[in-house]
Design goal:
This protein has about 230 residues and is an alpha+beta fold. The protein contains four helices and twelve strands. Helix content is about 25%, strand content about 20%. A hairpin with a 3-residue loop joins strand 7 and strand 8. The chain is flat and about 70 Å long.
């Protein structure tokens, strides 16, 4: 055990062929963990993106992360997830039991049994996940950390909104369809900004050119005026 809260990464860069990818998980008592000698950056979150990204999510997240790395001049450490394990509502899965946490090094947590048959007791544990892409040129020092008192929850999540596809022709439906066209364009622009993908390719994948506007024109025809 060492009083230094750090992770040595420099040795691994000696014989590395290019940048390396590292995911770091922390279980702490007080709160979120961040780096002290490099900037800790939250990834973009709660962004609305086109539906077709669902089938290309691995490509999307890879390119989004690469864009963030470039914007931080390849020197950033990125926060992907931070969650207070003292509660969850709703729970994606049962929280870890006290015994499971202790097996992972949570020595301060006393065994407390379970709530009911399947639900573990609440735990005084905070989970942080950091993601870093590093090489010798941009990370001249090992990673140094500190535990903060911040227990606010964060997760890099992205929103897919399914449109209403009814055939009603009432004024409200017409207004909704017009808003839908505008929303699709915003989603395309957001995706291009997050990933660096070509906006024309995104619009083509979304088939935006086939969508007429309220005055019968297609979206791109509104960019020019007579």
């Amino acid at each position: 055990e060492s009083p230094k809260f750090m992770l040595p990464i420099r040795l691994g860069t000696v014989n590395a062929d290019g940048a390396q990818e590292l995911f770091i998980y922390f279980l702490t008592k007080q709160g979120r963990v961040e780096t002290t000698n490099y900037r800790t950056v939250r990834l973009p979150e709660a962004q609305e993106i086109p539906l077709y990204v669902k089938d290309r999510f691995s490509d999307f997240y890879r390119d989004l992360f690469m864009q963030q790395v470039k914007r931080e001049n390849e020197r950033g450490v990125f926060l992907e997830y931070a969650w207070d394990m003292n509660w969850c509502d709703p729970c994606a899965a049962n929280p870890l039991s006290a015994e499971e946490l202790r097996s992972l090094g949570v020595f301060w947590q006393e065994p407390a049994g379970r709530m009911g048959k399947d639900m573990p007791m609440e735990q005084n544990v905070f989970l942080t996940r950091l993601h870093v892409r590093y090489d010798a040129a941009h990370f001249p020092e090992d990673l140094m950390f500190q535990e903060t008192s911040d227990r606010s929850n964060f997760q890099a999540r992205y929103i897919l909104r399914h449109p209403w596809t009814g055939q009603d022709e009432c004024p409200a439906a017409s207004a909704y369809r017009q808003q839908l066209r505008d929303r699709y364009e915003r989603e395309a622009q957001t995706l291009a900004h997050l990933t660096g993908w070509n906006i024309g390719d995104i619009r083509k994948a979304m088939n935006l050119s086939a969508l007429p506007t309220s005055n019968g024109k297609k979206w791109y025809q509104k960019l020019w005026h007579d």
